[in-house]
C-alpha cells in the first residue's frame, strides 16, 4: 500500500498593506488577500513586477537579436537560401515541444520558402530513433538535395552528426534549449538560450519559443513577404511552452499569455473558419475550450505526446496542427485521440503491474526503486515512473526489454539507436554512450527504460555515477533515459541504492505534498478562483496553488467508471462529492481522479486541493490532491495488520437489522451488497485499514462484516425488459432519474448499466446528463429492434457474468477472503 505522505505548508510572510491594495485593483470582486499572499511568496514584491506579471500588454519582450551574433549568422544563411532557392529541412523532435516547434518553423518559414518543394521537415521515430540528429536521417535528406538543416528543440550536443552533415555539404542551424556543447559545434549558427545568464528574460525559453524567435527575426529581416501575421504562431507557442513544463517567467510567461488568448479566440470561431481546425477538434474531443493553461497541460499536450509513445512516428501531428483542411484535420484528430486512449490503457496496465511488483519490495530499505519487465512498452515507462516516484517519494527507474531482442547488425544500437527514450520534454538530453559499455553487444540483450526523480534528488548524477554498468544514458536532474545489459541490472540496482543512501545519510525519503494557502469551504467559489487566476499560466516556478482545507467532511459521494473515447473500454475511475466544514451551511462540489468514493475518509478530515472551473459542467469545483483523517494530522507509521473479518453472509435478516444470532462489529464496516469482483472487496478492506489508522492503529478496534445474502437473480431477459420499460416511462413523463435509482431498480452494477444504456441508444433512446441525473428521450425507429440485437446481446452477457460473480462471492470460503485481505494489507 502507498506510504503515508508528509504534508507541508508554505511559510507565510504577510505582504504589506500597500501591496495588497495594489493586487486588489485586479480583483475588484474580492479583497485580493490570497492572491497577494501567493504573489508575495513567489517573489513578486513591487508594483512594476506585479503589473508586468499580470498584464502582458505592458511587458517588454526581448528582441530576437538578443541572441547576438548567432541570430545574425542564422538570418544571413536563411537570406542566402531565400536568394539561391536551396532546399531546407526542418529537423524536429517527437514530443509536444518538438512537434509544436516544427509546426512553428513549418508555418513561419513557410511564408518565405515553398512548403514541400523547397521546405520539408523530418521528425525521428520515437520507437526506432532517439532524440537528436542521426546519420541515417541526414543521408536521406542529402539524397533529397537538402543544403540546410534547421533543428528545433534538439541538436546542441550532436557534434559528430553535425560534422557528418557538413561532409555531405549540408549546413546546420541549431535552435534548441537543452545542454550546451563543451565547444561551439561547426554550425552555421546555434541559437540556444542556455548561453544567457539564468536571470535573463530569455533563459527559460522552450524549443518552440526559440523557434518562434528565429521566425520573428526572419519576419523583421525579410519584411513585406509574409502573407500571415507573426502573431498567428503564438497559439502553437503556448501549447509547446505549457506542455514542456518550463519555468513560465520572462518571455516564456508573456508568450504563453499571448498564445492562450489566440487559442481561445480561434476556438470560438466556427470549425470551418478556424485557423487551426485540428487544434479546435482536439479541444472538442477532450471537452476543453482553450482558455486555461490546464486545457493544454491536461488536454492538448498529453494527446500530442501520445502519438509517438504509441505509434513511434508522430510526423502527421505537424499536419494536424497546421493544416486548414477541416475534414483532414478531423481525421487526424481522431487518430490522435485513439492513440491517447491506447496510451492511457497501456499506462494503466503497466502501473498496475508496477504496483504489484512494489508489494515485493521493502521500501524502508529501498532508496531508489528499480523494476524491470520483459513486456512493458517503453513509450509509457517515463509516465509511470513519474507517478510511482510521486507516490513513494523515491527516484524510480523502470526498464523493459520489450521489442529489443538480440542486438546485432541492423539493431537499435546502430547510429542514434533510440536507447535514450521517454525523457521528459524539458530534459537535458545529453545523449552519450556509457564509458565501459559503449561497444556493440551483439547477441546480448539490452534493457532500456526511463527514470524519474523527486525530493530534489539529482537523478542524472546518480545514473551518471554508474556509467560503467550502462550502455547509454542521458537526461537531467529529474528525468533520465538509459539502457544497459540485462545481466547488469542487479549490480546497477545495488550500486545506485548504496550511492543514494550514502549521500542522504540519516535523511528519510517520504512522499511530500505542499500546500500554499489555508482556506475554508466558505472561501471556495468564483471570487477565490478569479484571485488565483491572476497567477495563470502556472508552471514550474509558479505552480497551481494548492489549498489546505482543515476539519472538513464529505457528503453525497459517488464514483463512476470513465471510458475511453467512443466508450470502447472502461479505463479509469473518479469519485465525485460535496465538501463541507463549519464555515458555511452550503456544500461545495469536487472530484478525485483515480479513486473510489469509499477511499474518502469517514468523518472529519483535512485535504489539499486545487480550485478549478469545469467548463463542461459550467461550475466551480475542487480537484482533490490528498486527504487524511483529522486524527491523522501527525504522520503515523503504516500499519501491517489483517483485519478481523466477520462472516454474516446468508443470515435470515440483514446485518443492519436486529435479531441476528451472530454479533455485529462494535466499531466496524458492514458490507451488505454482494460484490462482483475482488476490487470491490479490496476497496472495503482499504477503508477498514484507513479507519484503523485513524483510531491509533489498534487492530481490535476495527472489524469488517461481510453481510450479503445469496442473490435472488431475475432472468437477464427480464432485467432488459425492465430497463426498456423504465426508459419508455421516463421519456413519456419527461422525468429525470439518477443512476443510483436505476441501479437499485434493475439490480445491476454501474458498469453493466452503461452497457445497457448503450443498447437503449440503438432502440432510438437519447440519454442526456443533467448534473447528476439522466434524461431519456425516445424516438422510435421501425428498424431499431434489428439494429439493437448485438448491443442487447452484450448487455445480457454482462448481466450473466455479473450474476455468476455474485453467486461465487455468496459461497466463496471465508478462508479465501481472509487470505486475500492479508495479502493486500501488507
Strand order of the largest sheet: 7-8-10-12-11-9
- Which spans of ≥5 residues are poorly predicted at pLDDT below 50? 404-433, 435-443, 632-643, 653-667, 694-700
Q: Which strand-content bin applies to the residues?
A: 15-25%
The chain-level structural class is: alpha/beta
Query: What is the overall number of helices?
Result: 24
What's the end-to-end separation, in Å?
7 Å
Secondary-structure map with pairings?
Elements: E1 6-9, H1 17-24, H2 33-41, H3 47-54, H4 69-84, E2 87-91, H5 96-109, E3 119-122, H6 135-143, E4 146-151, H7 159-167, E5 171-175, E6 189-191, H8 207-221, H9 234-243, H10 251-267, H11 277-285, H12 293-311, H13 316-322, H14 326-358, E7 369-373, H15 381-392, E8 396-400, E9 432-433, E10 446-452, H16 459-465, E11 472-476, E12 479-485, H17 489-504, E13 512-515, E14 517-519, H18 526-533, E15 547-563, E16 570-580, E17 588-593, E18 605-614, E19 619-629, E20 644-647, E21 668-671, H19 678-694, E22 703-706, H20 716-733, E23 736-738, H21 739-746, H22 750-762, E24 765-770, E25 773-778, H23 784-811, H24 814-824
Parallel strand pairs: 1-13, 2-3, 2-4, 4-5, 5-6, 7-8, 14-15, 17-19, 20-22, 21-22
Antiparallel strand pairs: 8-10, 9-11, 10-12, 11-12, 15-16, 15-18, 16-17, 18-19, 23-25, 24-25
Helix pairs in contact: 1-2, 4-8, 5-8, 5-9, 5-13, 8-9, 9-10, 9-12, 11-14, 12-14, 13-14, 14-15, 20-23, 22-23
